[in-house]
Amino acid sequence: MIRFACFLVVALLTVTVSASAETVGFSQVGAESDWRTAFSADMRTEATKRGIDLHFDDAQGSVDRQLAAVRRFIAERVDAIIIAPVVVSGWTPVLLEAKAANIPVFIADRSVDADPSLFVARIAADFNLEGRLAGSWLAQASRGHCSIVELRGSDGAAPTIERKKGFAAVIAQFPGMRIMRSDGGDFTSAGGRRVMEQFIKSTNGLKDICSVWAHNDNMLLGAIEAMKAAGLRPGKDILMVSVDGVPDIFHAMLAGEASASVELKSDIGKYIFDVVQGYLGGRRDYQKWVLIPSDLHTPEDAAKMLERRSGS
Ligand code: AHR
Predict the structure, then answer these.
(1) How far is the CA of 99 from the centre of ligand 1 (A)?
(2) Which distant-in-sequence residues (6+ apart) come within 8 Å of 28 by Cβ?
(3) What is the tens place of the pLDDT at every residue in 67-124?
(4) How far apart are CA 123 and CA 79, in angstroms?
(5) pLDDT band, very low/low/confident/very high, at 244 (cuts 50, 70, 90)
(6) Which amino acid residue places its CA nearest to atom 2 of ligand 1?
(7) Which atom belonging to ligand 1 lies closest to the Cα atom of 157?
C-alpha cells in the first residue's frame, strides 16, 4: 500500500512538472529601442515565472535571421513559437512549415500580412490608433495649424505603416496641418538624431516648423539632442510628440523638452503567455487579435508614469 502511494506521488509530480515545462521559441525583432529591450526583459521574466523554457532569438533587425530562427525552432520541435516580426510581409512559407510540423504560432507586437489561419492569434496594441491619438493631441495643441516634420520607423514594419496612416488620417481633417518633411530613422536614437540634423539644415533651422512627430520615443530623444546641439528649444518652441512611453521620454517631459507620448505597454509577457499556455492547455476560443490598450501621456502625468514604472 505504502509503495503504491509513493508511486502515485511520484507519478503525480512527474505529470505536474512536465505539464508546466513547455518549450517556447521566441523570435524578437532586435534591441533597437528602449521599448524593445524592456519587452524582451519582460518576456524572459514572465517565462521564468511560469516555468517555461524560452528559446530566445534576437534577429538584430534582419528578416533573414528571423526566418532562420523560426526554422530552427521548428527543427527543435518546440511546443509553440512566438514571433515579433521585423516586417509585415514574407511570412507565408515559414508559417506553412510550422503548420505542417503541427507547431502553433503566435504573433506578438508587429503584424504580418499572411493568411490569419496560419497563426493562432496576434497579441498587440493598435498602431493605427496610436497615430490617431498623437495626431489628435497635436491638432488640439496647435489649434489645427501646424507644419510638421516626421521621423518614420523602419521601412515595412507594421508600426511605421500604421502610425503614419493613423496620424495622416487625423491631420487630413485640418487644412492648416501639413507634413513638410518625412524620413526614416529606424526606431533608433542615432537614427532620429541623424534625420533631425538633416531636417534642421533643409528647413533653415526648423523655421516655421511647429512640431516634430516621431514614430517612437527613441527617435524623438535623438531629435531632441540634435535640436539642442543646434541651439533650438524642443518642447518650448516646437511641440514634440511620439509613441512608446519609455522612462527617458518622461524625464524629457519633466525637463520641458518633450510634449506628449502614446504609451505602448512593454510588460505584455503576461498577456502573450496567457494565450500561449491557454492554447496549449486546450483552449480554442481566442480572437485573432488580442488587443492591448494604448493611451496618451503628457508632462502633467509624467512623474506619475515614472513612479508607476519604478514600482513595476
Ligand atoms: O513594434 C513596436 C515598435 O518597435 C516600438 O514602438 C519601437 O520602439 C520598436 O522598435
Answers:
(1) 27
(2) 36, 39, 40, 43, 56, 57, 58, 59, 84
(3) 999 999 999 999 999 999 999 999 999 999 999 999 999 999 999 999 999 999 999 9
(4) 18
(5) very high
(6) 159
(7) 1
